[in-house]
């Protein structure tokens, strides 16, 4: 029985998307107008300069930071991992190394967003994702996702891909194609091919210019995640509901019956216990059911995770206790990596084990646990010091950085709730409680820093709240209110 569901909460300032498995939050996506991802976008760019030591070039794509383009031949796996993890393919040819010169115009695609001081990473291999396939514009590879594990099914899809592959292009069959009819897959290939031909006309404009833009987070979620494993998708906005229905009507009409418009008076994230689960997404310490816990620390260089037995007393023998806690911790770590969208180098300090077979079993369990993650991993193993080292692909900033910002008090050594996130909290508070304040004058008390931010950037949002609930709303900065927090007082 399908247990996974997708819940979508749409407000004036942000769209929040939660994926749950049997009621437990396993993935979370957030989109704001000022924090839109560029991953997947295709640009006509201009080469600014070549860095021979890095064997790379910096290109102007019209963004605040220049794109980073490696000069050496880019492996196919590097750009395909953006769309489908663990793809098996047949390599028909390998193009020559890209030769660039300054001021040259070149078509590139963003594979990783800007992160910290680094600009976006781009590739000259272009691929257009659909629901069932990824169309490879300048490669001739044919592949089938390894998530389709049945051998006969894989062989059938591989043959279909070879038959429908456009001349001079390549094709990757995605996981959702396992439940699609051959004619549906073929139709999507033709649609993607026509759309790319139209997009390519924009390349006549001088660089930098946007040629192709990925859809918003909601449609990407439907395209990439809304498959046969998902029982229902609930969305609390009629406008977004209709947009999803129109999209599915084009690509997968049979899935439309699983999309539900949520209209209950109780906010959707409150109704499904998502708000309470999100409160812990920024916590360093995550408790385990047995009484143990893990501590997650993100730095510029890596993510460190410490495993502790804590109050656990489930096992009396030290080795069995250590193994049980480590195994429980790995399950939670895999969930937290997906939930927080943590990428880069990760080092896990496990509880020391004496028996080698227990260490090997932990590693096997970890490899099994990460199969459900769409991100790509490289696992280095467990060292003699009990450190599990691995990397998880990073295509955008983690949820921690989206929901928080450097603390102005400790000069960046810690983080606090971001002002944009605080706006979302305020908006949801009034959605829940505004009906009880009709006709009254209320004062929104925040830190002076947040009060200035609201007055300068979100005056229209506050005015809409006041109009919607027929109240008089004023803002007051108060140093006694912690950063990111607020109070609503009737005056």
From TrEMBL:
The keyword DNA-binding is annotated on this UniProt entry: no
SUPFAM superfamilies, per the entry: Nucleic acid-binding proteins
Domain S1 motif: 40-131
Pfam families named among the record's database cross-references: RNase_E_G, S1
GO BP: any one term: rRNA processing
Cofactor(s) the protein requires to work: Mg(2+)
Keyword Chaperone assigned: no
Entry's Gene Ontology molecular function annotations: endonuclease activity; hydrolase activity; metal ion binding; RNA binding; RNA nuclease activity
Residues spanning the signal sequence: none
CC terms in the record's Gene Ontology section: cytoplasm
Alphabetical UniProt keywords: Cell inner membrane, Cell membrane, Endonuclease, Hydrolase, Magnesium, Membrane, Metal-binding, Nuclease, RNA-binding
Protein name per the record: S1 motif domain-containing protein
Lineage, opening ranks: Bacteria, Bacteria division WOR-3
